[in-house]
Write a structure and sequence with these properties.
Mean pLDDT of chain A: 80
Radius of gyration of chain A: 31 Å
Family (chains A, B): Belongs to the chloride channel (TC 2.A.49) family.
GO molecular function (chains A, B): voltage-gated chloride channel activity
Number of strands of chain A: 12
Structural class of chain A: mainly alpha
Protein name (chains A, B): Chloride channel protein
Oligomer: homodimer
Membrane topology (chains A, B): Multi-pass membrane protein
Strand content of chain A: 5-15%
Largest sheet of chain A: 3 strands, mixed
Subcellular location (chains A, B): Membrane
Largest interface: A-B, 74 and 73 residues
Chain lengths: 727, 727
Amino acid sequence: MDVQHNHKNQQEGDIESEWTDGMVTMMEKQESGLKEPLLLRRRTLNTTSQIAIVGSNVCPIESLDYEELIDGSHFVWFFNVKKCRFYEAFIAYAGCNIVLATAAAAICAYIAPAAAGSGIPEVKAYLNGVDAHSILAPSTLFVKIFGSIFGVSAGFVLGKEGPMVHTGACIASILGQGGSRKYHLTWTWLRYFKNDRDRRDLITCGAAAGVAAAFRAPVGGVLFALEEAASWWRSALLWRTFFTTAIVAVVLKAFIGFCRSGNCGLFGKGGLIMFDLSSTPTTYSSLDLIAVVVLGVMGGIFGSLFNFLLDKILRTYSIINERGAPFKIMLTMAVSLLTSCCSYGLPWLARCTPCPTGIKEECPTIGRSGNFKNFQCPPGHYNDLASLFLNTNDDAIRNLFSGGTEGEFHIATLFVFFVVVYCLALVTYGVAVPSGLFIPVILSGASYGRLVRRFLGSVTDLDAGLFALLGAASFLGGSMRMTVSVCVILLELTNDLYMLPLVMLVLLISKTVADSFNKGVYDQIVTMKGLPYMEAHAEPYMRNLVAGDVVSGPLVTFSGIEKVGNIMHALKLTGHNGFPVVDEPPLTEAPELCGLVLRTHLLILLKGKHFSKDRVRTREQIMKRFGAFDFAKAGSGKGLKLEDLEIGEEEMEMYVDLHPITNTSPYTVVETISLAKAAVLFRELGLRHLCVVPKAPWRPPIVGILTRHDFMPEHILSLYPHLSSHK
Amino acid sequence: MDVQHNHKNQQEGDIESEWTDGMVTMMEKQESGLKEPLLLRRRTLNTTSQIAIVGSNVCPIESLDYEELIDGSHFVWFFNVKKCRFYEAFIAYAGCNIVLATAAAAICAYIAPAAAGSGIPEVKAYLNGVDAHSILAPSTLFVKIFGSIFGVSAGFVLGKEGPMVHTGACIASILGQGGSRKYHLTWTWLRYFKNDRDRRDLITCGAAAGVAAAFRAPVGGVLFALEEAASWWRSALLWRTFFTTAIVAVVLKAFIGFCRSGNCGLFGKGGLIMFDLSSTPTTYSSLDLIAVVVLGVMGGIFGSLFNFLLDKILRTYSIINERGAPFKIMLTMAVSLLTSCCSYGLPWLARCTPCPTGIKEECPTIGRSGNFKNFQCPPGHYNDLASLFLNTNDDAIRNLFSGGTEGEFHIATLFVFFVVVYCLALVTYGVAVPSGLFIPVILSGASYGRLVRRFLGSVTDLDAGLFALLGAASFLGGSMRMTVSVCVILLELTNDLYMLPLVMLVLLISKTVADSFNKGVYDQIVTMKGLPYMEAHAEPYMRNLVAGDVVSGPLVTFSGIEKVGNIMHALKLTGHNGFPVVDEPPLTEAPELCGLVLRTHLLILLKGKHFSKDRVRTREQIMKRFGAFDFAKAGSGKGLKLEDLEIGEEEMEMYVDLHPITNTSPYTVVETISLAKAAVLFRELGLRHLCVVPKAPWRPPIVGILTRHDFMPEHILSLYPHLSSHK
């Protein structure tokens, strides 16, 4: 590095003239030969961090002396050199990217397919009560961590933020289920969390910790958990997430302090505020406000368009991905190649810009990050597109956000970068790699903001960096539809408190505009994945139905003391998770609802084999037999299965007392209650089963059980197709 | 002002020697005469804002020339002058304060007693479902605004933040009930908000707007509404409060821009960030963390002690206040006099400090605010206690928070200020004046923080201003028990993002410590006022009871078509707000629960006098007669009363069809449901009535109705006294 730097001054006079005239087309490059100046290539490599990290040792020859080449024929040499450099560097670059991408896709496709994508929709669904298959399993956690590292290193246009939220949730879940028996990591004291509510709380805290760690935004993490992740919120939860993110902040701060010496790679950089902008009180006129409103409206449109296109692309991808792991990997490789082509090829088309004078920063940048990548430009010049493409995402965002850099990026550069990142973000999300949406949306939003600033330059005097921030806010608002959390996250990212009113305004406008087109991106993915997510509000047509209208299927009830054979039969034939228990004469005067038993508890009870020959209550014996934690919630996929039971013919004819495991206080609704009200009850209390009791006393004591699926619009509309027209 | 300034240099050499020796005791002052140097007094007045605002025209003589007095006998003159100045200035100061305090107390005591105090507990109770008498009435709004202005001007140790929250809620409530008929301010379009839920949402937004305006903290406002004010939270509400506070921020910003010229008094000062601290990345060691932990623990203890003492004092005051308006006013005057004595008298005891060298600020301060009040000190010196006492609360906080001012305040000054403000805050809150707790708590916390910094000076190197901020956080956490909202409010007040981890840590510790002693101050006031606030969690002993155990009183039910006389009788005899309607044969085969009617709806129906001679359904006629908005929620205290109905003897024997106004989808629980579960249902859904239905089918179709009062611990423990031991 030092050697190359020393040579720069000698080189300067000779080749500057050829470079300063701007655009060098691909055609010209094709004409050149195969000779290769390694030092030049090394410089390119060293100033582009993605290559720098993965590919800095591609060529071992370093001793070739530069001076020999600078002679009279340097012009011919130059083009000779360029072509070979172009291809070899591209192969090194794209090759490394593809290898990393393939690694990410392979572990994802073969070990834990659930780890693909952001993970935020799944965490959101889990906190709503939908436990998708192995979404929080240890294998998912493993793939999420390493897949995300590989994916980000592979230069994809994707973020690490979503995966970190998912990672946080996975860790919380594993703690919540008392460690992992499979991997011999168990802690006894953790069994106190083995219930639905504590596990849900832990996972909410995990998601908050993920955001807090990803953006170094502790308060933003709390608000993200509140606004986006959690479906049920309690004041205790606010306190717990706050506690979690405070610990995250203190630990982060300690690590950053430890890494200040620079021996932790890129981690030590940036400090607690990742994109610290010099925050000075700014005034804005009403004309500025108009510009901001325009930015917000268009940001909302672009954001909802992003959601629309993403939905289409994901649906297309799912056809490919469903064909098996090799297809997933091939798709990932194709996208990786496309990404490499764009990020490597496009900077060659960009104009070299002379370094601005009177700035503190080094220009061109030496080292891994910075606003001014030299790329193929002569000394004293920089390639603005390379400064965005061939950089870490964090640095690209920092470059775009940085203030007082009006003329640093060409309008064409911004346009190309915006279009490419917007499109790459769309095609990247669906591949089998852990990928977050925050960073791509912020990147495209920031370049969009700077573009708008250029077009509205006559109207507004606000800083271009500020416009980049507002553009990012408008895209986040338009795509993810978060308000307070995005606002606080951006505040904690940039430390620009003075711009809070403008950020709030932009978020309001873009969210409002986008809401008139479609749903937020995470909601959309939840819907696309077919997860039965309960919305906070009942659909309007639900007001025209009563609870009794949608209770489906034949009802399977048990007696308080039931024959084992009947229970086994019911468990085999139905997939129900809850069964009502009805006490009948002679136990009671008339049949009456005793309560609800859960499938998992029935299995544990049957496994215990505490049966009796006659219909007698055996509460005491059963209570002696089972401890308090025997019925605790098992880890996902760890519970007993029906096949695990071995019950003989004789035992089938015996009786078992269900009273000890019956929940005698189930929530009930009368069958004539409005379906909308039942839905609100179901949602607000976070229920899994809701018993529907008859209104008329002469009927059997229970009409049916409402579950989550009974409230899904598809179910209701399949029963009452005419309602879809009212929808 | 300019004249006085010019004279300063001439005066300097003469009297400096007498002043620099420090403390001048009260005894000495008593010996002096009555002559009065107006120019000197004017300077004192002008550098102390409370006098400056209210008392700058006390003496009309301005032409007396100063030079005449500076002669050989100036030493004797000096002490002569001081005594008269001391008394006259005190009388002017205390007199103005008492007049203002009396005005505030008078309008409060005679027009709207509900406007006394912070208002946050009442708003919190309203959002929980408790509509305390005239708490959101227009008269309360009027008194809250003007009482708060008078109260703050009177120099009390109280804040404007709580009253601003209450003001916001009042304005929202008035908008929500369609304006005020009494004051001829009505808007037809506002009638769309005339229902419980929309009004609740509006008031939540109003509270958020209050905080946003008071602290210029829009995000803090949203979080305050979420964490402290609201009992029910929906994602739509998050969005609405965010919208509200964004508008507040934009409007505030516009006004601040407009007032930049300085012609809006103190409003234009400070900008959007009230106490802008120069925020620089700071590192802290583990020793610093220990100091912060100590600060947090002690802050938590002081905070909970504050709550404990406040409760005792409020209970004592209520004995005085209950005796009538004159007593309220006298109490207020006494507290005002005490406050004046402290804030005027104590700075005389303080040592004069030479101005620090090499600072940008003017010293001593000229004008209304600043760190260095000259008070009675010679030129080039300042009185540090006067800089805190004789200043606006905002400026005092700014002085304490300002960084790099280690030696600016003497340790004795900080101690005196801390003790006096802590005690004055306690005795001030209960008087009949709108008063907030935020500012006193922040003030005492900030001085406490600086004190701790002094004592732990050997352990920590952190800035004293930062310790003041952390001290304020610890007191807020210890007293109000808010976490995220206080954190964000402090962030938005100070723009000191780098200190976020420390602030979070302090808040966590102080809240945890304080929670082990007593409840948060607002919860405590709600309890003390006897408002039936529903806690988010059911008490543990509720698990041992079932819903049927606590249903109280004789149940009054109506038939679906009921005799008018019966309804009138029931309305007269009971105070119930909801009555179950039971359909009986021949309408149905057996008696069954039809639904619930509300008292207000019954009154409106009876007023309409649509009666029939026989038991027939008259749904269609009734539906024709009443429009959709006839049953809309009336403004508080605006609804029909039983006395308004004039129903003749003959009509009493007629029938009225209750079906059109019956809510046929009431939420129900079976009588055997655990009381804890019923309480969760009641609280989570924000219910007012919960029907308890029997388990056994042969019983009447309804057992009783649970209301808020049935879930109150007092009610339950009065029924089952033995439970109190388990509590």
